[in-house]
Structures are given as structure tokens and as C-alpha cells.
From TrEMBL, chain A:
UniProt record similarity statement: Belongs to the ABC transporter superfamily.
Claim: Transport is one of the keywords in the record: yes
Organism, scientific name: Cohnella fermenti
Top-level taxonomy: Bacteria, Bacillati, Bacillota, Bacilli, Bacillales
InterPro entries named among the record's database cross-references: AAA+_ATPase (IPR003593), ABC_transp_ATP-bind (IPR050319), ABC_transporter-like_ATP-bd (IPR003439), ABC_transporter-like_CS (IPR017871), Oligopep_ABC_C (IPR013563), P-loop_NTPase (IPR027417)
Region (Disordered): 328-356
Protein name, entry field: ABC transporter ATP-binding protein
Gene Ontology MF terms: ATP binding; ATP hydrolysis activity
Limits of the ABC transporter domain: 7-256, 361-611
Name of a matching Pfam family: ABC_tran
Automatic annotation (TrEMBL), chain B:
Localization per Swiss-Prot or TrEMBL: Cell membrane
One Gene Ontology cellular component: plasma membrane
Family: Belongs to the binding-protein-dependent transport system permease family.
GO biological process, one term: transmembrane transport
Domain ABC transmembrane type-1 span(s) in chain numbering: 96-297
Chief location category: membrane
The entry's keywords: Cell membrane, Membrane, Transmembrane, Transmembrane helix, Transport
Source organism per UniProt: Cohnella fermenti
Topological relation to the membrane, as annotated: Multi-pass membrane protein
UniProt keyword Membrane present: yes
Protein name (record): ABC transporter permease
InterPro entries given in the database record: BPD_transp_1_N, MetI-like, MetI-like_sf
Ranges annotated as spanning the membrane: 12-30, 100-123, 135-162, 174-193, 228-254, 274-293
Length: 677, 308
């Protein structure tokens, strides 16, 4: 059959002050009618540029097609004028973006923006277009579509907005839907819903989908074929099953090995790809991947491998034969040894000895309520119950994971534990001392033992401070060191996180995301704390780099005897790192269990659904599809009884009325559910 | 929505009250005795001075004077001129229309020129129109009005003779003063609109709009401009203050009637009640305009409406 989209040796340049910058080089791919193709790669691989080139949106960003062709159903997109393209965009090809919150014009209603698109391409009356838009919103699963039509983007949740975005994209019946990381900004439960929706709609509307993602799990789940991009070139492409079974490029292999799956064990080192993706201004010679490749030889360093095509597959590597020899079975075969990590392996990391039973942090009945603004005087004051009666404890030397959807209160809880915000009620005891009563000097000295690693490696480092000052600041505050002592300490800290001591005089913008996160970690461990809170510390990083940082965190725990509270929404990583995990839902802890146990035998229906929502890169195990319906309710008006009952498949009348208390189903395993699984 | 408006009105009243008190206190703290400007202290007897002080009420303690002043303000009594005992408020009201006309004309001018140039210069970045807009912006914010006013006078009334040099009757006398004053506002608005347009066109939703197949014209004027105007509207409210302050100079340069002129004369004559009255009156006008801006804001930006 004639392919719907055919990209042939496409090269794209961006015009910059320093001359043209090649973002894509001879990228080819085809999408057949009704096919889903995933474009996979880390940030900087050029996947978004590729998708924007198809829409020719790069023309607005100083981009230019420097060579090659893009054919969509017989039209040569590369040679059309912007005017001709405008009648195709939104009509024949449509796009869904990563940040649903930012993708709508905030000052017009959802309805207006959908109707605007319909009326641009189809000669429909306003009323007909409006009705069509309502039916689309209804189809993509938005409740009360007529009300939503009149709402503004700021009034809808991220998940709802992404549905609305999909409705918008579908409004003129496109043949090709391009989805650029459509679920990256969403919770796993919502992600599962959106992916399922996309698949249903593809059948229904007879479209083809080009899906861009960094998550191989998503690719495994919905793609027919996968194209792996690296630094603007195709590294490999193959039908999904074949790609996952026998990757032909060491980069693909590295990506697959980097994923912490739900069955990697704590203590095991995650495989990571050394280094990070090269910048387009400083591409290496020969094979672009060679500086990070464990199989690289002199040939790789001098000569770029051509794209070899065999059957349905294509790849560009000199050493595929060798790579395949090391692949035993189909999965996680121990990986490529040399690729293991950028951190020098010092000794085998045995599974952390189940930490001493001494409790370092005890949390009792902690609540954090925020008053709702604008409640009228006289009326009962309304509160957002961000954290509502949470009790648990963390033992010396263990890693406690905290998971839940956004809005579950996990980050608030973290901030309250660190006394960055005062608890509304409850007690927090750290190392035998009551933190909640402390103030001023005593709190400041207690903080030496409690440090934090932040989510955003860009926002959490002052761009005008050099690395030495950033890492040395806690030393300056808490310890009296002279300049040379401080310099020495900073140097050792940088080395202990796998950075060069000479980086101390550089500034944050000179570093990649992964390196910045290492700097953040060095700052957190500067004072030899006992306890480190890592709030989504790796979620902003690419998978290969994520693995490096996770390994580093584990290694430091070993070496320094740290206790971690690891907050994240990425379940695989939490499972990999944690000894015990607590699951939060709407301000409540609903389940606490040893990590292994929690994933094997989740007792709370919410935990089970959360686990099931995670897309798996393991093709062999087609997971049970129990995607959670609906979205997390507002913490200002939590449901009565069990807060989860509105979304729980097992809810009964009792759940609606009576709030379940935490009780033990096992000495180590507590759950708040009337009908534990 | 109604609740927000009520809230805003109440806080506006507070601001007016606060600023009247502030004005009074500043006047009180000014060095010099108001009596000095009425009689010659060298020739008057101490009894005469004391009597005069008593008549004016300045022998009272601060709080008593303040209470008296505030009570009168509430009743619409802005006091009397020291020079001719004329009540202040009627005089302000009599002259305000001329200042209002000037302020309105220059505001209109600066908004039209500012928004138009700002948008064009952002859309055609680094093109000739952008260069022109940037020059206008720079001149507008950096030329003092007493200088640019005189310059315009020289060119258009004296050399070319197209427009009258002074007076305040008929639209012709309004053109030059409004242009002088409008230039400042225009300069600010050009820069503001240009910057926020440049910011908005980099927003993600602009890419969405392009991916829908909309024309650039629709994207720029229907979507980007409305978003870019949100911060500019606040700016326009604040410009009213500039206009009122500028009126003092402009009305003097062009020999126009108006409250700016009144206050300039009163300052020269040390006629404090008049100065005080005009300042309080201007404060009220300023607060009212900004109240309107706040309310209109929530009509332009649905996010503000929702937060309310």
C-alpha cells in the first residue's frame, strides 16, 4: 500500500547567529495508513524537530529544510508555500503537544478554539461547528461537554485539557495525527487513559499516528514501528517487537537497559549510558554515538556508519554483529558491561541490608490545611486539606518511597517534614528531637542533618553563582572553614558525585541536566546529613541519565549511611530505590508496604491501579488493563468516607460513609481499605 | 465578580483616605509658616499673627487639624484659598474639563500610536518599522515635556504657523499639548506592547494556533495581541498619573487653563490649601481610573475573573 507519510533523507538546518546548525541529517521514515510509528530519543535527539518539519512549523523558528522530501498522500510538503500548508494543517495533519496547559490560548474558551479550527477548514455554520465540537469533547471522554465548551483553559485539569487538545486535533478529520510527548506532563493514570483513547480514535477515524516519546514503555505499548533518533540521525528503526527483542544499535540497547522496570531489584545497579547526548554545535566525528558506546573502535571514531536496511529493519552501526552476540534471550540480559555507569563502580552494591529498626523520622498525625482564599467572613472557613492525618516512620538507613498522583499531597508532606512549612497539626520527631516545636537557632542546627534534592535541575541552582559557591554554601552557613579548607571540601564533594573538582569555578549553565542534578546532590550531602529528601529528583532527566543519578544516590547511601525519603510519580524508579513505599491519595496515606511486597501484592485498589497504569517496555507481559477512571478530586472537597471511593471499582455503600483506618494485613504491610485485595 | 468589584471599591476608598492623610501630613511638615505668605512677619504684631494663626486653625495640634480637615473633606469642603478665600473645590471643578480634555486626547493618542507601533514592530522585528517604533519609544520616554513641548511650539506654531501656540478653546489648541503629553505615554506603551508581543509569540499556544492552519493575521491580531494587551492595560492605568503630572508643565508651556496650571500658580504663591486640594483631587481621579482598569482587566483576562 502507498504510505501515507514518506520522509525521505530529510535534513533540517536552523539558522543561528553562528551560522547554520544541522538539526536533522538524512532522516527517513514512512508511515502507512492506519499505522502508529513512534519516534524515540532523548532530549536533543531531534524528534520534535522532525515532527515540526512535517508540519513545516520549523519555518517559524528559523528552521529550513536543507534537503530531502516529505510526502503526505502525494503532496510534497517540503516544496509547498506557507499558504498552501495552512490549508493542510489542522485538516489533513494535526498535532497534539506536550504541555496541554500551555497549548491553548488562555484568554479564549475551549469551545471558541475548537470552533475556530472547524470553521477555518470546513464551511460549517457556527451552530453546526459548535455541535460538532460538543460531540468531539463527548467522544474524547470529557464529562459535561456543553459546560466545558464555555470554560477557559485555566479551568480544566491537565488531563482534561489534553483530551480537549485531542478533540481539537480531530475536529477536521486529519489523516495524520502527530503527538509530541502527549502524556509526559500527565500522571501515569491519566497517561494510560490518554494512550488508550488515542488507540481507539485511530481505529475510529482511520488515522495514522506519529507519536514522539522518550518513554520506551509507551512505544512498546502502542507503536507498530519504532524509529530511534540520536543527535538528529536515525540510529535504528524496526517493527516494535523486533526492536525490543533484538536491538541492532548499542544506543537502543542502552536505552532499553536503562529502564528500571517493575522487576529490577533494589540494590542492583541500573544500567546507564555514560555521558550525555552531544550538543549540535560540537558533534563528534565518525559515528555520533561513539563517545558513549562501549563497543566503539577506531573505525567508529573516524567513519560514520551508513544506514543498513534489511527487511523491515534499518540501523546504522559498525558492530551490530557483536552487539547481537551479547544479546541472550530477549530482555535485560545483563547489558553491556562497559556501559554500566559513569560512576566508578566501587565494590558490588549488595542489596541494602534491611536497615536497623531504629526509627530516624517519626511522623504522627500530620496535617497541612491551606485556607481557601475568598471565603466570606461569617461562613465556615474552607480548607484545602493537602495533607490530612498522615502517620508513618522512616528507619535509619532505609529509603522510603512516597508515590501518588499530582494533587495527592506528597510534595506538601515533604515540605512539612523539613519544616519548610509549618504543619497545621501533628508531630514530627527526627532523631529523637521534636522538630515541630523548634524554631530559630535550634531548627537551623537541626537542618544540618536534613537536606533536600530538588526536582528541577535548572531552577534549583542560582545561575549567577559558580558551582563551588553553590556546593560550598551550606558549609559557609554551618561550618567555619577557611577558604582553602572549603575549597578542599568542595573538591572532594564534587568528586564524590562523579564530577571533576575543577568544575568548581564554572557556572550552572555550562552543565547538562544530569550534571546539574549531581551538583544539587553534592550540595545536599555537603554537611554529611543523616536524612535527604529527594523530591522528584530524577523525573526531569532523560532515562539514560536518570539511571546514572539513581545509581549515584544508591552508592552515596551505602557510603554515607544516608536515609532517603524519595518522592516521585515514576513508580519504577521508586520501586528500584526504596525499601518501603507509602502510597498517597488525596492527602491520605492509603498503603505502606515493603517495596517488593507492594508491587507483588498491592492491597489497596488504588495502588493496584497505579501499578497497572505504568507502561511496560516488556512486550512479553501484556499487562492487565485496569486503567483508573476519572481524575483525582479536589482536596478542597474530598469525597466522604474513603476518599478513593469515587474511582474505586470495588466501592460499596460502606466506603461512601465510613473512612477506613490504616490496619495491618501483615506486620510490615498496612492499608487503609475496607476490602483489601 | 460583584464581590471582587465591591472589594476593589472599598480598597480604593481606603487608598483615597490614606493618600489624603499623607498629603495633609506632608503639607504640615513643610518648612515655613502659612501665615508668612499672608502678612509680612516683620511688620505684624505678635497678636496679629496669633489671631491669624487661630483663624486658620494652625495653632491646633496635628490630630485636631487633621480631624477638622478630614471632616471637611467628607463634606466636600476642600478648604479656601489663602489668597482670595475662594473655595478650592469649585475652582478645581471649573478647570478640570480642560485638563480632562488634554489627558483624554493624549491618552487616546498614546494608546493608538503605542499599540499600533508596538504590534507592528514586534511582528516585523528588526525591519524598518521596528526601528521607527523603537526610536519613537526611546524619544517618548526620554524627552522631557517642557523641552519637547517647546520644540513642537517652535516648529508648528512659530515656523509653520499651522496651530495656535496657546489658549484652551477649540480642538486646534489641543493638538500640540496632547501630542507632547501623548508622546510620553506612547513611548511607554510602544515598548510595553512590543515586549509583551515578543514574549507571547514565543508561547506554546502560538505553535498550536499555527498547527490548526490559522493565518498569521488571525494568530497575531486575534490571539497574540489580546494576550499581550493584558500587561499593557495596567500600564495604561498608571500612565494617568503621568498625564496629570505632565499637565502641570504642559498647561504652563502652552498657557492653557486646567488644574495643572492652578497647582503651578498655587505653588508659586505658597497657597497651600489649593495645592493640597488639587493633589487630593488628582489622587481621587487616579484611583478611580485604576479601579476602572482593574475591573476591565478581568473582562480581558478570564484567569483574573476565575481567580475572583
Amino acid at each position: 500500500m502507498e504510505p501515507l507519510l514518506e520522509i525521505n533523507r530529510l535534513s533540517v538546518d536552523f539558522h543561528t547567529r553562528r551560522g547554520p546548525l544541522q538539526a536533522l541529517s538524512e532522516v527517513s521514515l514512512t508511515i502507512r495508513q492506519g499505522e502508529t510509528v513512534c519516534l524515540v530519543g532523548e532530549s536533543g535527539s531531534g524528534k520534535t524537530v522532525a515532527s515540526k518539519s512535517v508540519m513545516r512549523l520549523i519555518d517559524y523558528e528559523n528552521g529550513r529544510i536543507a534537503g530531502g522530501r516529505i510526502r503526505l498522500g502525494g503532496l510534497d510538503l517540503a516544496s509547498l508555500s506557507q499558504n498552501e500548508l495552512r490549508s493542510l494543517r489542522g485538516k489533513k495533519m494535526a498535532m497534539v503537544f506536550q504541555e496541554p496547559m500551555a497549548a491553548f490560548d488562555p484568554v479564549y474558551t475551549i469551545g471558541y478554539q475548537i470552533v475556530e479550527t472547524i470553521r477555518r477548514h470546513d464551511s460549517k455554520s457556527k451552530e453546526d461547528a459548535w455541535e460538532h465540537a460538543v460531540s468531539l469533547l463527548d467522544r474524547v471522554g470529557i464529562p459535561e461537554p456543553r459546560i466545558r465548551m464555555k470554560q477557559y483553559p485555566g479551568e480544566l485539569s491537565g488531563g482534561m485539557l489534553q483530551r480537549a487538545m485531542i478533540a481539537l486535533a480531530l475536529s477536521c478529520g486529519p489523516e495524520l495525527l502527530i503527538a509530541d510527548e502527549p502524556t509526559t506532563a500527565l500522571d501515569v493514570t491519566i497517561q494510560a487513559q490518554i494512550l488508550q483513547l488515542l488507540q481507539e480514535l485511530k481505529e475510529e477515524f482511520g488515522m495514522s499516528i506519529l507519536l514522539i516519546t522518550h518513554d520506551l514503555g509507551i512505544a512498546a505499548e502502542i507503536a507498530d514501528r519504532v524509529v530511534v533518533l540520536y543527535a538528529g540521525r536515525v540510529a535504528e528503526q524496526a517493527p516494535t517487537a523486533e526492536l525490543f527483542a533484538r536491538p541492532h544499535h548499542p544506543y537502543t540497547r542502552g536505552l532499553l537497559d536503562s529502564i528500571a522496570t517493575l522487576d529490577t531489584e533494589k540494590g542492583e545497579k541500573l544500567h546507564s549510558i555514560a555521558g550525555s547526548i552531544p550538543s549540535l554545535t560540537a558533534l563528534p566525528n565518525g559515528c555520533l554515538f561513539h563517545p558513549r558506546c562501549p563497543l566503539a573502535t577506531d573505525k567508529c571514531r573516524s567513519e560514520a556508519p551508513p544506514l543498513v536496511a534489511r527487511g523491515e529493519r534499518e540501523w546504522a552501526c559498525w558492530h551490530t554483529e557483536e552487539l547481537l552476540k551479547t544479546t541472550k534471550g530477549n530482555k535485560r540480559s545483563g547489558g553491556l558491561d562497559a556501559a554500566s555507569t559513569a560512576v566508578p563502580p566501587d565494590g558490588a552494591l549488595t542489596a541494602t541490608s534491611p536497615s536497623s529498626s531504629q526509627e530516624l523520622l517519626q511522623v504522627e498525625g500530620v496535617r497541612k490545611y491551606y485556607p481557601v482564599k475568598g471565603s466570606l467572613p461569617g461562613r465556615k472557613r474552607a480548607y484545602i486539606r493537602a495533607v490530612d492525618d498522615v502517620s508513618f516512620s522512616i528507619r535509619q538507613g532505609e529509603t522510603f518511597g512516597l508515590v501518588g498522583e499530582s494533587g495527592s499531597g506528597k510534595s506538601t508532606l515533604g515540605r512539612v517534614l523539613l519544616q519548610l512549612e509549618k504543619a497545621t497539626a501533628g508531630r514530627i520527631r527526627f532523631d529523637g528531637r521534636e522538630l515541630t516545636d523548634m524554631g530559630g537557632t535550634s531548627l537551623r542546627s537541626a537542618r544540618k542533618d536534613i537536606q533536600m534534592i530538588f526536582q528541577d535541575p535548572y531552577g534549583s541552582l542560582d545561575p549567577r553563582w559558580n558551582v563551588g559557591d553553590i556546593v560550598g554554601e551550606p558549609l559557609r552557613v554551618h561550618e567555619r572553614l577557611n577558604a582553602s579548607e572549603k575549597k578542599e571540601r568542595v573538591a572532594r564533594l564534587l568528586e564524590s558525585v562523579g564530577l571533576d573538582a575543577s568544575y568548581a569555578s564554572r557556572y550552572p549553565h555550562e552543565f547538562s541536566g544530569g550534571q546539574r542534578q549531581r551538583i544539587g546532590i553534592a550540595r545536599a550531602i555537603a554537611l554529611n546529613p543523616k536524612f535527604v529528601l529527594a523530591d522528584e529528583a530524577v523525573s526531569a532527566l532523560d532515562v539514560s541519565v536518570q539511571a546514572q543519578v539513581v545509581n549515584l544516590l544508591q552508592e552515596l547511601q551505602e557510603k554515607l549511611g544516608l536515609t532517603y525519603l524519595f518522592i516521585a510519580h515514576g513508580l519504577q524508579i521508586v520501586r528500584h530505590l526504596s525499601d518501603r513505599i507509602g502510597v498517597m491519595y488525596l492527602g491520605k496515606l492509603v498503603e505502606i508496604a515493603p517495596s517488593h511486597e507492594l508491587f507483588l501484592r498491592p492491597a489497596h485498589p488504588y495502588t493496584k491501579a497505579l501499578i497497572a497504569s505504568v507502561p511496560s517496555a516488556d512486550l512479553g507481559a501484556k499487562r492487565e488493563r485496569i486503567t483508573l477512571q476519572g481524575e483525582i478530586p479536589s482536596p478542597a472537597r474530598p469525597p466522604s468516607g474513603c476518599r478513593f471511593h469515587t474511582r474505586c471499582p470495588l466501592a460499596t455503600a460502606r466506603c461512601r460513609e465510613e473512612e477506613p483506618a490504616l490496619r495491618a494485613v501483615d506486620p510490615e504491610h498496612v492499608v487503609a481499605c475496607h476490602y483489601p485485595l | 465578580m460583584v464581590r471582587t468589584i465591591i472589594g476593589r471599591v472599598l480598597s480604593s476608598l481606603l487608598v483615597i483616605a490614606g493618600s489624603s492623610v499623607l498629603v495633609f501630613v506632608i503639607m504640615y511638615l513643610l518648612p515655613g509658616d502659612p501665615v508668612d505668605s499672608l502678612i509680612d512677619p516683620a511688620s505684624a504684631t505678635p497678636e496679629q499673627i496669633a489671631t491669624l494663626r487661630h483663624q486658620l486653625g494652625v495653632d491646633q495640634p496635628l490630630y485636631a487639624q487633621l480631624a477638622d480637615y478630614f471632616g471637611k473633606l467628607l463634606r466636600g469642603d476642600f478648604g479656601k484659598s489663602l489668597l482670595n478665600s475662594e473655595p478650592v473645590l469649585p475652582k478645581i471643578i471649573e478647570h478640570f474639563p480642560a485638563t480632562l480634555a488634554l489627558a483624554a486626547a493624549s491618552a487616546l493618542l498614546s494608546v493608538i500610536v503605542g499599540v499600533l507601533l508596538g504590534v507592528l514592530s514586534a511582528i516585523h522585528r528588526n525591519r524598518p518599522i521596528d526601528v521607527i517604533a523603537r526610536i519613537v519609544g526611546l524619544l517618548g520616554i526620554s524627552m522631557p515635556t517642557f523641552w519637547s513641548g517647546i520644540l513642537l511650539l517652535l516648529v508648528f506654531s512659530i515656523h509653520l504657523g499651522w496651530l495656535p501656540a496657546m489658549g484652551s478653546d477649540g480642538w486646534k489648541t489641543l493638538v500640540l499639548p496632547a501630542a507632547t503629553l501623548g508622546l510620553i505615554g506612547g513611548g511607554f506603551i510602544v515598548r510595553m506592547v512590543r515586549n509583551s508581543m515578543l514574549e507571547v509569540v514565543n508561547e506554546h499556544f502560538i505553535v498550536t494556533l499555527r498547527s490548526k492552519g490559522l493565518s498569521e493575521r488571525a494568530i497575531m491580531y486575534r490571539h497574540a495581541l489580546r494576550n499581550a494587551l493584558i500587561p499593557s492595560v495596567t500600564m495604561i492605568g498608571m500612565l494617568v498619573g503621568e498625564m496629570l503630572a505632565g499637565a502641570v508643565v504642559i498647561e504652563t508651556v502652552f498657557s492653557r487653563q486646567g488644574i495643572g496650571r492652578i497647582v503651578a500658580d498655587a505653588i508659586m504663591a505658597k497657597d497651600l490649601p489649593v495645592v493640597q486640594g488639587v493633589i487630593v483631587f488628582s489622587a481621587i481621579v487616579y484611583v478611580l481610573v485604576n479601579l476602572l482598569v482593574d475591573i476591565s482587566y478581568s473582562y480581558i483576562d478570564p484567569r483574573v475573573r476565575r481567580a475572583a
